[in-house]
Design brief:
GO terms for molecular function: ATP binding; ATP hydrolysis activity. The chain is α/β, with parallel strands linked by helices. The protein has a single domain, classed as Rossmann fold (3-Layer(aba) Sandwich), CATH 3.40.50.300. Helices cover about 30% and strands about 25% of the residues. The strands form three sheets. It has a six-stranded mixed beta sheet, sandwiched between helices. A hairpin with a 2-residue loop joins strand 9 and strand 10. Helix 4 runs antiparallel to helix 5. The radius of gyration is 19 Å and the shape is globular. The structure holds adenosine-5'-triphosphate (ATP). The site of adenosine-5'-triphosphate (ATP) has 12 residues, from strand 2 and helix 1. Adenosine-5'-triphosphate (ATP) binds next to strand 2 and helix 1.
Length: about 270
């Protein structure tokens, strides 16, 4: 990772009110260019969703912002360069829900959420009363109290997704990265999880950076969207500005109809 000063347009990392400042982000994996010179700012309290076709580089970009992958360019979190934050400070600043997290076999819901408190527990130390209270708070906030003693592998997809979110929230970070948070969920549970995130965003002043495939749902919740294609930002703006028939035809290679909706446009694929 490099800590060079931000270079791209709109990349003034220390600017007040910017929670995530990404400038000229470039990621190569095994020599292949996967994310190409991406600039992206997320204001404090804002919800930005990255969309794009399969293989566009959405997850890779998100993982880089989370510090999970080496990259070139710069990422600043609330003005602090990501690569100068120690692992614990980083975990207190930004929490990630990845796709299909690895779950330790046999772990209970309570113990899994407690893992979110790791940055607060001293090496070789034990969790404090504050850590246990934080887990209780998230169990209550996400309606998981009856599941606390259950093994995670006995939960339904929707219940498990709430637990993943609870663990991330227990970290106490003000920035939440969500990679496809609703991919395994039916339409009702998708809405439930996204409403919950939106509610917690307002209540706790969280900033959300997400990736999503369902374009209509993504547009419903995002303040702004970024369309990634071939690792590059090809459109950015409000859902109405990004979810256009022309943008989607060009980058998803699909004929769609875009219908003005309540919060964001509704996108329907049509047979050609
Ligand atoms: N280690 C690697 N070496 C080379 N290419 C890789 C490696 N890991 C991932 N890729 C490629 O990077 C590209 C982007 O992957 P990524 O998962 O970021 O895309 P995505 O937009 O999140 O896709 P999806 O919507 O399918 O989840 C894909 O073409 C993938 O095959």
């Amino acid at each position: 990772m490099s800590s060079e000063p931000a270079q791209g347009p709109g990349a003034t990392p220390a600017r007040a009110g910017v929670a995530v400042a990404v400038a000229d982000l470039t990621v190569r994996l095994d020599g292949a260019l996967i994310v190409d010179s991406v600039d992206l700012d997320v204001a404090e309290g804002e919800w930005v969703t990255v969309i794009g076709p399969n293989g566009a580089g959405k997850s890779t970009a998100l993982r880089a912002v989370a510090g999970l992958l080496p990259f070139q360019g710069s990422v600043h979190l609330h003005g602090h360069p990501l690569d100068r934050l120690h692992r614990r400070e980083r975990a207190k600043a930004i929490a990630v829900v990845v796709q299909n997290p690895v779950v330790p076999v046999g772990m209970t819901v309570f113990d899994y959420i407690l893992l979110g408190r790791t940055p607060y527990i001293p090496p070789l130390g034990r969790e404090s009363a504050t850590d246990l209270a934080a887990v209780d708070e998230e169990l209550t906030a996400l309606d998981l109290v009856p599941f606390a003693g259950r093994r995670l592998d006995t939960l339904s997809g929707g219940e498990r997704q709430r637990v993943f979110l609870a663990r991330a929230l227990a970290q106490g970070a003000r920035i939440l990265l969500l990679d496809e948070p609703t991919s395994a969920l039916d339409i009702g549970h998708q809405q439930e999880v996204l409403e919950l995130v939106d509610h917690l965003r307002a209540e706790r002043g969280l900033t959300v950076l997400a990736t999503m495939h369902d374009l209509s749902t993504a547009g419903e919740y995002a303040d702004r969207m970024v369309l990634l294609s071939g690792g590059r930002v090809v459109a950015a703006g409000t859902p109405t500005e990004v979810l256009t028939e022309a943008n989607l035809a060009e980058h998803y290679r699909v004929k769609v109809r875009v219908i003005p909706g309540g919060h964001g446009p509704l996108v329907v694929a049509v047979r050609s």
